[in-house]
Amino acid sequence: MVNLLHLRTLLEVTRLGSFAAAAARLGYTASAVSQQMAALERDTGVELFHRSARSVVPTEAALTMVRHASKVLTDVETLLAAASRSTDSPVQELRLGIFPSLATYILPDILRNPRWKNLGIELRVWVAEPSQTIQGLRTGGELDLALVYQVGQSGLAWPHTLDRQWIGDDDFRVVLPASWGIREDAEMQASQLSDMPWIMHHPGTSDAVVIERLFASCNLHPRVVAYSDDFHASLEMAAAGLGAALVPELALRHRPPGVVVLDVPDIRLARNVFALLLNEKRTAQVQLFTELLADTLRGSTATVRARSTATMPKTTQKSTPKPRT
């Protein structure tokens, strides 16, 4: 009988192209992922990967299985949700800690999704930064589940007793005032952006430290004109012509008129989003909720990227642009 957990792992391996990458996303070791795939091959009787010392390449059988696995997993979610609505399965209260941009741009989409109405969950929400929600996530604490993010290897930490599940990545993008005359999705080098005025994170925060190191590594020394940890405020100030900013794709869901998004290959940074859960609170309903969250986040970031690339044809900026003063 095919293990559904192995199917989920198969989807990640084929999407990311390696056992190690899938392991990092799912919170396993690479060895555990390899063992799961070997077990799936035994259960199905087909070879799923061409393995070498440096890579794993999915076979045609694996790609066929992936095409059907998504539907199978969705059907199982529907089955479990139906069971959760039975009289023997009372509504489960879930005390959720969630960071502001996820609460602003993703949670409303979840609450409007028909899948949410079938989960049988009564939600209690606490919107706060990850460092605050982690404090409430302990036995006898105020929360059952915390949705947090980590930028690079920032200082955010949580007790090892918590169950961690990767939800998705929220990539940072460079935005500029449209009034500076640079086209949407123009490709530029980070060093070309040094002479521009910048809106930066407040110094001393874990995010700011990671960003400062990244900028320094690619010879970008920003001329700071504002400090802001509010991405909506940063976008509005950029739209008004104050300066460039680095914002996550989630914030671009409601991007104001007057900003353009650049393609800067040197600047590759993301917020890794995780669900942290007390083990005793894990139920089928909570698992379905986290999967719905991951699907919604993935769909949201894909929509942002599609809108960005559809706005204007791509061009490459050859010289250092000069913002208007």
Provide key terms for this protein.
21% strand, nine-stranded mixed sheet, 11 helices, alpha/beta
SSE map:
Elements: H1 4-16, H2 19-26, H3 30-44, E1 49-51, E2 56-58, H4 60-84, E3 92-98, H5 100-105, H6 107-112, H7 114-117, E4 121-127, H8 130-135, E5 145-151, E6 163-177, E7 197-200, H9 206-217, E8 223-227, H10 231-239, E9 244-248, E10 259-262, E11 270-277, H11 284-311
Parallel strand pairs: 3-4, 3-5, 7-8, 7-9
Antiparallel strand pairs: 1-2, 5-11, 6-9, 6-10, 6-11
Give a nutshell description of this structure.
By secondary structure, the protein is α/β, with parallel strands linked by helices. It has helices at residues 4-16, 19-26, 30-44, 60-84, 100-105, 107-112, 114-117, 130-135, 206-217, 231-239, 284-311, and strands spanning 49-51, 56-58, 92-98, 121-127, 145-151, 163-177, 197-200, 223-227, 244-248, 259-262, 270-277.
Account of the 3D structure:
With 325 residues, the protein is α/β, with parallel strands linked by helices. The strands form 2 sheets. Strands 3, 4, 5, 6, 7, 8, 9, 10 and 11 form a 9-stranded mixed beta sheet that branches. Strands 1-2 form a two-stranded antiparallel sheet. The model is unreliable at 312-322 (pLDDT under 50). The chain has helices at 4-16, 19-26, 30-44, 60-84, 100-105, 107-112, 114-117, 130-135, 206-217, 231-239, 284-311, and strands spanning 49-51, 56-58, 92-98, 121-127, 145-151, 163-177, 197-200, 223-227, 244-248, 259-262, 270-277. The longest helix is centred in the C-terminal third of the chain and has 28 residues, at 284-311. The radius of gyration is 22 Å and the shape is globular. 41% of the residues lie in helices and 21% in strands. The N and C termini lie far apart (67 Å).
